[in-house]
Design a protein that fits this description.
6-stranded mixed sheet; mainly beta; 18 strands; elongated; 3 helices; single chain
């Protein structure tokens, strides 16, 4: 019997951290959902972060609307192929007794994100799983759903190191953010390795981004010892990494980068 597949739903999964919005993610159907998909000829295709759902119709089942109306709820385990996901995502990490539930609501194309107790789960989630996607088919009033993750905001910290062989005399040293806001500093601190660094920190939390639109900038005025000729240096600063997260002495979540000048 010949089957013709028709697209009936798409799910966009977006993340602010990534420059193209695409996140390394996969959907694994729960055991019951896998049986429902097989029984109703449902296939999923992922293209550039968009999961497209297709339903197969044959000469007997030709009414797509009727088939979808009688579908049961679909559940998928959401797996993330990135151990730093919770570092750059504005979600609190989960423990063994909870998971994230992502579900659709009536009259909305945006999925709701909430924590749920693991006691309600039939089985155990994989180590790289962040939770369960639940599609309530009876509440679907759209052909497109969106799951959006916000990026985490942290204080940016730059640890500026000058060469010990330099004969520069620093006259003025400043760091500016991508909105031209002036960073606090410099404060001299001893960092890892016993080196003395000039430390700057952003006045407010800033979003972690895979590729920043505008890099923070170091502006320096200096002269060489014995010279009155003032020179200027402007330098784009590197992006901070979600791998370098820590709480400072003021209990602020900070991501730092070491910069050699």
């Amino acid at each position: 019997m010949e089957i013709h597949y028709h697209k009936w739903l798409e799910l966009k999964i977006l993340h602010q951290y990534f420059s193209d919005g695409k996140i390394p993610i996969s959907l694994v159907p729960a055991q019951g959902t896998a049986m429902i998909m097989k029984r109703n000829n449902i296939l999923i295709r992922e293209i550039d972060g968009v999961f497209e759902f297709y339903i197969g119709l044959d000469s007997v089942n030709i009414d797509q609307a009727s088939l979808i109306e009688n579908l049961e709820n679909l559940e998928f385990e959401i797996n993330i192929e990135d151990q730093l996901f919770f570092n750059y995502t504005d979600l609190s990490p989960i423990n063994s007794e909870e998971y994230y539930l992502f579900r659709n609501l009536l009259n909305s194309s945006d999925l709701l994100i909430e924590k749920a107790s693991s006691e309600a789960l039939e089985g155990q989630l994989k180590d790289n799983s962040i939770g369960i996607l639940k599609i309530n088919v009876s509440d679907l009033q759209t052909e497109s759903l969106t799951l959006s993750f916000d990026t985490r905001k942290v204080f940016y910290e730059y640890q500026i190191l000058f060469s010990t062989h330099s004969n520069w005399e620093i006259i003025d040293l400043k760091v500016y953010g991508y909105e031209n806001e002036e960073f606090f500093g410099p404060i001299e601190k001893t960092i890892v390795g016993g080196q003395k660094a000039q430390v700057f920190m952003s006045p407010n939390p800033m979003p972690l981004l895979q590729i920043p639109i505008i890099h923070p900038e170091l502006k320096l005025q200096y002269n060489k010892h014995g010279s009155s000729n003032i020179k200027e240096l402007e330098m784009k600063l590197p992006n901070v990494s979600p791998e370098n997260l820590s709480y400072n002495e003021d209990d602020r979540l900070v991501s730092f980068a070491i910069v050699y000048v």
